[in-house]
Design brief:
The structure holds 2 protein chains of 2 kinds. By secondary structure, chain A is mostly helical. Chain A is built from 3 helices and no strands. Helices cover about 75% and strands about 0% of the residues of chain A. Chain B has helices at about 1-20, 25-45, 50-75, 90-110, 125-135, 135-155, 160-165. In chain B, helix 1 (about 1-20) runs antiparallel to helix 2 and helix 2 (about 25-45) packs antiparallel against helix 3. Classes of the chains: A mainly alpha, B mainly alpha.
Chain lengths: ~100, ~170
Amino acid sequence: MSMNILLLLGAYMFCAGLVIAITRKNAIMVLIGIELMLNASNLNFIIFSGQADNRLDGQLFTLFVIVLAAAEAAVGLAIIVQMYRKFKTTELDRVTKLNNE
Amino acid sequence: MNSLLMIIFSALAALAVTFMLFTRNIMYAAFGLVTTLISLAAIYVLFSAEFVAVAQLMIYVGGIIVLLLFAIMLTQKTGLGVLKSGTARLFMAPLLSAVLLVLLGVLLWEFPVNTRTGEVSDPIRGLGVRLLSEHLISMELIAVLLLVVLIGAATIAGKFYITSKRRVP
């Protein structure tokens, strides 16, 4: 029974991350939403790794997802910092050109 | 006891996620993310995935959150005293996400997952052995990827990248 509660929590986290990533204008908030969605998938991997025949597969996948999330966050935040230097804003709606000249 | 702790931590995570959903303040959202990540690490421990829990604490809470806070402090105009994020598309996105959530909930209601009992003996040892035998190539690839990504991030965020204007040959 508690398993279903956790799966529901994963679904809720994914949907909340989706809403945050779509509705917020600030680029950092979009990244936060993406992190939330990745964590929801991690939770599902951990829960279902107890169900599989090979019980460590889910944990291995989760480790890879964590490392990839770290890589994505590093590059994304570097791009946001650089974007702020060029455009003086992090609002995604106001960044409409690739080259601010 | 175990299931009680699980319910407490899931409630904590759900509360933090709801808070993140409704706050406009970027800093508050980052701290809500911290609470969510720590609750998830506790849930991982309860599922006997200790190594993943420690990795979650070290990489997410120790690394990504610090990066996020640095990026917030570097890019927001904190002098005004506000760290607000604007919103857009406030009708369609929550509607579609609610539909998705309801569909997933119906799916869970129709096909509930049964708990399978039985413990893995020494999961960390098994994880290490499999990581270095079966998944060796993926692990090396991801290590190289992380190195390249960190160098690239440092290059992109570095000062010299923007000051090097187009040089006329």
